[in-house]
Amino acid sequence: MEAIYALVGILLGAAAGYFFDRLRRGEAYKTRDDIIRQAERDAEQVRKGQQLAAKEELLKRREELEREVNETRDELRAQEKRLDKRETLLDEQHQDFLKRERMVEDAQHKLAERAKAMESREAELERTLREEQEQLYKISGLSQDAATERLLERLRQELKNETGALLLEHQSRLKEECDRRAREIIGMAVQRYAAAHTSETTVSTVDIPSDEMKGRIIGREGRNIRAFEKATGVDVIVDDTPGVVVVSAFDNVRRETAKLSLEKLIQDGRIHPSRIEEIVAETQKEMDAHIRQLGQEAAQEAGIAGLHEKILDLMGRLAFRVSYSQNVRRHSIEVAYLTGLMAEQLGLNADLARRCGFLHDIGKAADHEMEGGHPAVGAELLKRYGERPEVVHAAAGHHDDIRPEYIYTVLVAAADAISAARPGARRETLEKYVRRLEELEALANGFPGVEQTYAVQAGREIRVIVDSRAVNDREAAAMARDIAKSIEQSLTYPGEIKVSVLRETRSVEYAR
């Protein structure tokens, strides 16, 4: 039974397995069919999607092609319009060219006709001229060569007159241009250099600690003040003015030496004749070194190198020399700068120009030791110490005493006048200045035959115009000498005064 049960169980298990196997296979077949159908549907959808994308891409490409075709078509149309317009313009230009060509042909034809007419008229004119010349020859009795020579001579004379008139006209224009340019150069130089002006006097004051010191300065019976004045060459004024003693002298070097010596004596306290001589001698040595230093400083400030030691000493002495209260050393430095600036604008040697301006008044440092005015003295000193001819000539001729041979002399004279005429440069009352000019003119007007008199250059020169019918050349020379001597005897003046007597004969006629 157990075997039967086992067999039945096996059969039932086999049947169940077969049944389940069949069932599983049916589900599998069913699932396979579903999968196949789903795959077919998906494939169909993919195919349709690809077809749709392909159609869209085709449409997009077609639109791009159509747009490119349209753009190309529009461009071709625009080019066609431009070509049509250019063709129209070329046609118009061609018509215009044809029109101008016809006008030129007409003009050439007219010119040819006019040339023929001119040739005929010239031929007729030549024939007429020959006939008139023949008649003129017969009337005047001159040959053809003589008439030609006379005509040429008249033409030469007319050409000479016209040439002279043109030269005068150009000379006038050139003078105006030169004057304008000179004003510009001088104005530019004055603007570029502006120096302070100081006025100096001929007295110095020395402060003293108390009025008791005045008695010690005077000394017993005045022996100290007499010894001091003898050793220094100055005047010492001791008055009632409290706290000061006045030192007076026209020589500024002496005055400065005396001032320093007196200050040293006051500080030392020992005031007696021997001590005074000792202090004065010591101060004079110090003053010599100080003068050399002042000359070196002036040369350095003006940019001048290679000067002789004696020249430096003389330039240092100019620090104690005044001209109408203007310090000559400062004046020389200013003239050097102005001359150099004007030379630069004219394209000249600025270094040489500054040297000429710096040394132009050096004669004022030694004019009391040598005979002659400061221009001649300065020229002699510069020549002695090996300066260039331009520098020597500038010193000799900056007051127009001689005829200028170098342009630097003219520049120095202009700079000297500018420096002296600047406001505040020189201190002299207007009344005194005008009175000296009036005295000069009145003195010269007192001579017989004098028509007019002019005092120029701040009274440094007087120009006398005489009647040429009343005074001959020899009398004019004698008059110049007599006027100079009369000025020397009658007037007081600084430096020199140049006397120029002018005599001329002038013939004037008027063409009406």
Shape descriptor reads flat
What share of residues is helical?
55-70%
**Uncertain ranges:** 197-202
First-last Cα distance: 188 Å
Mean of pLDDT: 80
Strand percentage: 5-15%
The count of helical stretches stands at 14
How would you sum up this structure, described in words?
The protein is mainly alpha-helical. Among the domains are: 203-421, no CATH class; 432-502, K homology (KH) domain (GMP Synthetase, Chain A, domain 3), CATH 3.30.300.20. The chain has helices at residues 2-140, 144-192, 212-218, 223-232, 252-268, 273-302, 309-317, 328-346, 350-358, 374-384, 389-397, 407-421, 430-445, 473-490; strands spanning 203-207, 235-237, 244-248, 322-323, 326-327, 450-456, 461-466, 498-502. A 3-stranded antiparallel beta sheet has the order 1-3-2, with helices on one face. The protein has a 3-stranded mixed beta sheet with strand order 6-7-8, covered by helices on one side. The longest helix has 139 residues, at 2-140. The chain is flat and about 195 Å long.
Write the layout of secondary structure elements.
Blueprint: H1 2-140, H2 144-192, E1 203-207, H3 212-218, H4 223-232, E2 235-237, E3 244-248, H5 252-268, H6 273-302, H7 309-317, E4 322-323, E5 326-327, H8 328-346, H9 350-358, H10 374-384, H11 389-397, H12 407-421, H13 430-445, E6 450-456, E7 461-466, H14 473-490, E8 498-502
